Amino acid sequence: MEIGVYTFGEIAPNPHSGQKISPKQRLEEIIGAAKIADEAGLDVFGVGEHHRLDYAVSTPPVILSAISQVTKRIKLTSATTVLNTIDPVRLFEDFATLDLLSNGRAEIIAGRGAFIEPFLLFGYDLEKYDELFEENIELFQKLNACDKVSWSGQYRSALYNAEISPRPYQEGIPIWVGVGGNPNSAARAGRLGTGLAIVILEGDPARFKPIVEKYRETAYNTGFSPQDLKVAVTGHVYISDTSQQARDEFYPYHSNYWGNPNQPPKGNTRLSREDFEKMTGPESALFVGSPQEIIEKILRQHELFGHQRFLAQMDIGGMPFKEVAKNIEKLATKVAPAVRKETKK
Predict the structure, then answer these.
(1) Torsion-angle region of residue 68: left (phi > 0), alpha (psi -120 to 50) or beta?
(2) Which residue ranges in the chain fall short of pLDDT 70?
(3) Which of 3, 15, 135, 194 has the largest count of CB atoms under 10 Å?
């Protein structure tokens, strides 16, 4: 299994000091986190896209290009790209350029977005968000396959034998569809033959098993081979030496994250310690605990989904960089080797 980390570049006040860092420092820390992950032997580093003042990253390919110059082997992915509010040709050119700069490490996780700001900023109709996503991902796949493209659609100007440049270092840029629980989105990923990245932040992960089954069933019925299908699981992670220490240390950041009034789906909700403890139980999807607990949760989910990738989001709720760095090291040295060993069997 591939093990990695991702960030949205959230800028939140530290719950202990009340202090916020600058966007410049946040970007520098993201690049530093990627360098640590690469040197520690993790497989993937992801950067999400938001268009708000409480996030530092609006252009993942720019940040990932900077990261590509200080890393050697780690795969670089968006997490996610809001595909229904961007021109697919520009998106392809940006990630093909990243792919060349990184010697073939670029990937995309495409999503429909959790905020409305991109639609307002870039002039897209929010009521057409699903149709826009469908058209854009199909066009992107065509751009990925051909260096000259003729195409016409409903929401973008037509292309007539257009040269699509530059071509990526890889044969094609890997693309995944990010899904938060919508079976129709999973079916679309299966129909298109993309990877499936499921976001599981709380509750019993078993409820997502039908989503993965829908993806694989649709892909198989469309004619894709099982070996071509990839599933990733993403979630919040905090690792410390003991279970109690991890819960005590992470609760202020996790509560701060959900207390953000702009954070869907629970914005401005005060998370009690009692509720937090329930969320960290052995049957829950929240990865908080000792290294062994994290290993056991990942492997339990692997039994459910048979997934090939696990991505951890750590830097939430104003967590300082030194804590993020320690968690990346623990994930790489104490968790990843055991998970890889068990999933090879």
Answers:
(1) alpha
(2) 261-269
(3) 194
